[in-house]
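May I ask for a sample protein chain and its fold as tokens?
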Amino acid sequence: MPDSGPRWLVEDGIGERRALLVKDREALAAKLLWPGEMRAGDIVPARLVAKRAGKARGTARTEAGREILVDQLPWGVTEGATLTVLITRAAIAERGRLKRAQGRVVDGVPKNEAAPWPNASARVVRRFPSGLWEEAWSGASSGSITFPGGEILCSVTPAMTVIDVDGEGTPRDLALGAVPAIARAMVLFDCGGNIGIDFPSIETKADRRAVDEALGAALADFPHERTAMNGFGFVQVVARLEGPSLLDRFATSRVGMCARMALRRAEILDGAGTVLATVHPALRAKLGAEWLDELARRTGREVRVETDPGLALEAPSAQIVAP
């Protein structure tokens, strides 16, 4: 029987918390949270450590030592003051640097009263419906979604997330065919900020307008602003940025993403015996004692880890073997 509507499901994994927006056993959107991360909607106490002269902006630091770029500082506040900060954007790792979290000072809001994640109606489940998380994870890992006649390739740069359209057919038909995949990727991979879409160059204004209209319809429920397609087939989309997308995670923490997937595959196994996880050697160091102990506790089984340099990072395996 079809579901009545989309609903967020949450899976508390080892080393991460995963969320999927599911309707009729299809994953519409995905989110990911790692322990210790501040997220958009969190309200945290922090101490003002630097303030720009004549500006209502500065830098605050939490008790855990995490820095936040803050705005809307009260008039007359001085360095050393304790603030209540609403996180508006989580920290985002980039190649070679870290974009610090952003927040604004709020007044009269209880400390440490975080907004529900991903929302108040989310339901915690032991396990997602089969294959849904794997589909989102694999798509973000490769950065690719196929569609009839082509595929889109998503990549992360310091300036923006770029979506390239590749395939066969006339430029107009290829662009129109790519639109549903582009809209799906933006939501499924939790994209935000500046997003550039590189369609094939389309000569006539009428054909470019047709693609613009199709893209607008596909993104009707995705809050954003965008430019019209230019003569080179480029469209820029700007959406609210609240934290790292799944694409960002793979770009900066691929080993961490793959290690956590190895744990998930081992955790969902059924049957009696010993859990044997086989991983690329680069993942073995990431699978620390704390995570493996938690895996043994959750499964009630002995856990063994072996390495195989022939395995791809993204292809850890897990099976039940005789003790």
User: Anything to note?
Assistant: The radius of gyration is 22 Å. Residues 132-239 form one domain.
